[in-house]
Amino acid sequence: MLKRLLVIVLAAVCLATLAKAQDAATQATDDLGPMQQVLQEHADLIVESSRRTIGPAIDAVANSGLEAAQTVLEVWQARDMYQRIEDGLFFAAEETGDDIFTLTDFDTGVVVGEVPDDALEQIKPNSGIRSLIGTALVSFQLNDPDRAKRDEAISSLERRGNAELLTPLRNSIDGEPDPALKERKMRVERLMTITYDPDEDARIEAIEEMAGDLGVDVRATLNPLVATTIRVFPDGNVPADLNIAREVEPGSEELPVAEAYEMLDGPPMVSSDDLRATLQDNIVDGRVGGIPVAELFDPERREAAYGALVDAGTIPPRPTAEEAAQAVEDATFVAVYAEPNPAITAAANRALGKIDTNVGLNQFLDLGLDALSLGSIYFLAAIGLAITFGVMGVINMAHGEFIMMGAYTGYVVQQIIPNHTASIIVAIPLAFAVTFAAGVAMERLVIRWLYNRPLETLLATFGISIALQQLAKNIFGTQARPLTSPDWLGGSVVLNDVVSISTVRIAIFVLALVFLCVFLFIMKRTRLGLETRAVTQNPGMAGAMGINPGRVNMLTFGLGSGIAGIAGVAIGLYAQVTSEIGQAYIVQSFMTVVVGGVGNIWGTLLGAGLIGALHKGIEWFNPSNTLAAQTYMIIFIIIFIQFRPRGIIALKGRAAGD
Amino acid sequence: MNRSFIGRNPSILIFLLVLAIFTIGVTFMSEAFGAGMISTSFVKTLGKTLCLALVAVAMDLIWGYAGILSLGHFAFFGLGGYMIGMWLMYERTREIVESSMMEAPIPPTEQEIVDGIGNQIFGVVGSSEFPAVWAFADSLVLQLALVVLVPGLLAFVFGWLAFRSRVTGVYLSILTQAMTLALSLYLFQNDSGLRGNNGLSGLQNLPGLDDVSQDYVSMWFFWGSALALALGYVFAAWIVSGKFGSVIRGIRDNEARVRFLGYSVEGYKLFLFTVTAMIAGIAGALYYPQAGIINPAEIAPIASIYLAVWVAIGGRGRLYGAVIGAVFVSLVSTYFTGGQAPDINLGFYTIQWVDWWTILLGLSFVLVTLFAPQGIGGLFDLVSGRHHPDRHGADLGPDHGSLREEEAEE
To answer: Where exactly are the transmembrane stretches of this chain (chain B) (predicted)?
Structure first.
């Protein structure tokens, strides 16, 4: 009995001791903060720092639901997490003195103390682990109160999606306070759904939702889905479980016969270069396969020599062209989708088709805007010419040099007035004044003596043109001078990923419109315009009415030249200013006037629009080759002149001059 | 009017005499056949100048006599150069390729040689295939025929289109300028088949004549150019001397009236346009082997305008005027732009002729147009005592191309 009692007592004591020990242990862990506990549970894994095994540790921290989780991950990723050697606890540490680290507790955020570095062990996650941590962090950052951090997290998802982040992303959408970020989150969610969602229906739904979207990101998401590789099945038996895009015909552009044959495991084909090399290696005493080397300039003798080598067993036989063709013929070539699910690829193809149509439409719009802006540049360059050539019948080859003078005026003004906006505002009227004066001087000194000799005018003004061009070269040098546009003209208006137009071009378009109105006003509403029209129609009669034709011609010529100067400033804003800047536009300007019809501003407008549209249209067919576009455009204009020799809008009656 | 063709045009005889004396003189002063007073490179310059004179004669025919200011004749000139350049380059490359391939252990096949030539010629534009335009490049006879046919055909098609729709005067000038620009832009492309902006080079080396020095080759071309100029001049004089000449002058002065008289104005113009384009092609084919290189920049519209400048300075409407203008302006240009002219020191500024020559040329051109519309050739009227028609200020004809009183000569 006593013995039994003793056993019981002993057992009780033991139990009590055990319980006490248990208690003590619990007490020890209870002292630690909850995050420290989580970390201690996975201490071995954390210290081991291996990319293969670290997963559960990161997950435990990330899914702990503790406030400190994000801080821990950030500190861990930044290699600032240290383990105290004496008790194995983890802290955020910062080197505050010479080999002295200040430790901060994760749970409470209070500074625990300072220790020398030999009491600590740094946790060194490698780059693989850090990227895993980063992924885990994103789900926190998506809900971070700091907007910049959320922005960064979304950007990181946009760059590289991740299947595991799909759920955290979805969860974060509802709580997003910033509407712009919310929109981005929803868009990334759709795109990630397309790539990562395990549910087929959800993916197809997302694909269909994004169909027709113009964003480059959508195309980048969809294109990998429909990427194919060409695979060959020599016996023609294609496994049924493959997601096959289509059968590929050997000999097509996609798969030339030679490439198709290479995909088969037959003996290699011998090219003529290989044949030559083989023959060269087998020259014996000036003969190859019994045929003298001197005869081998003949392709047939080369074949014969090769055949002899094969017969002699020196080299392995090669497939004939027929055998190769037969082998290719027998095999089946199919393009196989990397994506195994046919429903997904079909949906992706449909969506891409819709996107292509949409992109095409928008490209057309973009092209239209380009054409419009090019047309307005031609209009600006040609409007002065239309006045001198159209209204006065004088051909001014130096018109391009007036454009150049305007551009250089802008450049000089910018050297004096550093403020870009102010300098442009000063440069435009100054350019007008300079070229107006030059035009009047030229009219008085040269052109008025040549009014009844138009071909001589052409040559005399050409003489002035080359002299002015060389003069500009002597003064400003041959290198291009920049004419910087003010900041508010520097950007561009972006409608979507396809359609955009730079602000300078819009400004030039507006400028062209302004000049159209100014020109119309001068010609229709002012005394000068009335007199100009009278002199154009009949100089003698106009003179009899008391108009001074000489003065009118002088002012008209000055006006045309002045507008060329302003066009020069506008062109200089987006092109480099060189002494040849006018040459680049002079022929197109002549074309504009000739196509549009002489003596009519609306004709010039139509001509500029037609030439701009034509230029861009041809360029669209062959985008790599602007030279060809110009060639074809000029040929088109020559043919156009066949049908409307007097231009789109021709003067009728006496004003036409014949 | 029973006098012979030469009798009616004594200027032809004088011109041929001067040309002959000039040619013989240069021959006896050359390094190859004479005293060596004239360097080979200057013989080439003189030979090239004779070719320019020939194309200027063609320009005078079409502008001075028919009143069509064509800004495309230098394009025809360049096309002629390209045609002969293709043969020269092909044959020359074939020699090089063949000699290098013959050193290989196995003699090359015909195909390998052609491929090798293609690689050599088109390597610079990233291709090795022969484009279709090179189909006849291995035949001298065919390429020589193309020298005349290609410019002729282009001029025929363009002229037919332009004259048919009655494009005249300044419009026609602009249209020909556009044609020239289109052609040069086309040739600038790498896939035009003519080596893009690299052009054709090494044309001064005649195939098969490696051991003949350039001293002799340059003299051959000089003689050839002189002969071509003589023949071209006589041909042009013959064209303008007879009834045909009267008709085209009539077209220049009053096109409508000639048309109402029953002449096919378009036919006459088209014939003259095409023939002068062919003459220009021949001149170009002689010019570019002496220059050694041809590229699309040579064809740019400005070259054709310069051609008109020469004719105007020399005196349009007279054939010797065109020759004088071309020779005078191009030699003076060579003198000034070649850096031989001494600089003028003004104390505060030194005039370097390389920079200022173009300005002087441009301004003197304006002055000639304004004050001496007859050009240098007008000086001969003073010697020969010819009088201008006194029309009391009336024009010879209403058309834009017609001569005005102060520039008329007969």
So the answer is: 12-33, 71-90, 140-163, 170-188, 220-240, 267-287, 293-312, 319-336, 356-383
